[in-house]
Structures are given as C-alpha cells and as structure tokens.
Amino acid sequence: MLLLIQYTIIFASVLCLVALGGCFSEHSGVINLGLEGIMVMGALGGAVTMFLLPAGTS
C-alpha cells in the first residue's frame, strides 16, 4: 500500500507540473496543444541522457 502511495505522488507531481505549465501558457494568451508531447520528449531525453552517461558519475 505504501508503494502505491509513493508512485501516485511521483506520477501526480509530473502531471501537476505539466498542468501548471498549461495554466501559464493559457494565462499569457497562447494555446499550447503539445503539452503531452513535450512531456514525452522530456522523458525520452532524460532516458537517453542516463543511458549515455558513464556509470558512477554523480
């Protein structure tokens, strides 16, 4: 049960950050339809970066 709560907090924080970015763009008058794509490309970039970094770097 504790693991479920931990993963819920992790995934909810990512979605809250994307929603906050959408709120800022809507408030400025720009309609951003690509928030999900930006989130996916950010995750892909992070995964590729972690793959390419040598093990043991901090």
Protein model, in words:
By secondary structure, the chain is mainly α. It has one domain. Helices cover 76% and strands 0% of the residues. The radius of gyration is 15 Å and the shape is flat. The model has no long low-confidence stretch (mean pLDDT 89).
Summary of the model, kept short:
The protein is 76% helix and 0% strand. By secondary structure, the protein is mostly helical.
List keywords for this structure.
58 residues, mainly alpha, 76% helix, 0% strand
Shape: flat
Task: Calculate the terminal CA-CA distance, rounded to whole Å.
Answer: 31 Å
What class would the helix/strand composition place it in?
Answer: mainly alpha
- Helices and strands, in order, run as HH
Lay out the secondary structure.
Layout lengths: L1 H26 L7 H18 L6
